[in-house]
Amino acid sequence: MKRVLVKKSASTTWRQRGGNLAGGKQPGGEVRFTLSGKRGRHPPGETLPEAALNAGVWIDSSCQQGVCGSCRVRLTGGAVDTEDAGGLAEDARAAGYVLACCSRPRGAVSAEA
């Protein structure tokens, strides 16, 4: 089952989703990395590390499966579809963190990277 993180101002909400967005694809959009100040655009279905690399930002990642937690970043705006394998503690999730390797933006997003 998919989890969707929606970040709106200071609050974070997780929703369980039973399926993909219309047609199984997330919309593309702008991606902004607040620590580096870099921006870019991401096509539908691209992960956060792929979008970051295309914008000239490196996000550490080891397992690419959402297990190790090395790709943890804080989402500061927008929403992502994520299917991690349990590599993120619930308190980190509540604080707005996602595992970038298995998070796909849903439209415009911003993250600390």
Explain briefly what this protein structure is.
With 113 residues, the chain is mainly beta. The chain contains two helices and eight strands; from the N terminus they run E-E-E-E-H-E-H-E-E-E.
Number of helices: 2
Number of strands: 8
CATH architecture type: Roll
Kindly name the structural category.
mainly beta
CATH class bucket: Alpha Beta
Strand content: 35-45%
| H/E element order | EEEEHEHEEE
Find the CATH topology. Answer: Ubiquitin-like (UB roll)
Fourth-tier CATH superfamily name: Beta-grasp domain
The coarse overall form would be: globular
Helix content: 10-25%
Q: Tell me the number of structural domains.
A: 1
What's the alpha carbon Rg, rounded to whole Å? 13 Å
Distance between the termini: 27 Å
Outline the secondary-structure elements.
Blueprint: E1 2-8, E2 11-17, E3 29-33, E4 38-42, H1 48-54, E5 72-82, H2 90-94, E6 97-99, E7 103-105, E8 109-111
Parallel strand pairs: 3-8
Antiparallel strand pairs: 1-2, 1-5, 3-4, 5-6, 5-7, 5-8
In words, what does this structure look like?
This protein is mostly beta strands. It has one domain: Beta-grasp domain (Ubiquitin-like (UB roll), Roll), CATH 3.10.20. 11% of the residues lie in helices and 39% in strands. The chain is built from two helices and eight strands, in the order ββββαβαβββ. Strands 1, 2, 3, 4, 5, 6, 7 and 8 form an eight-stranded mixed sheet that branches.
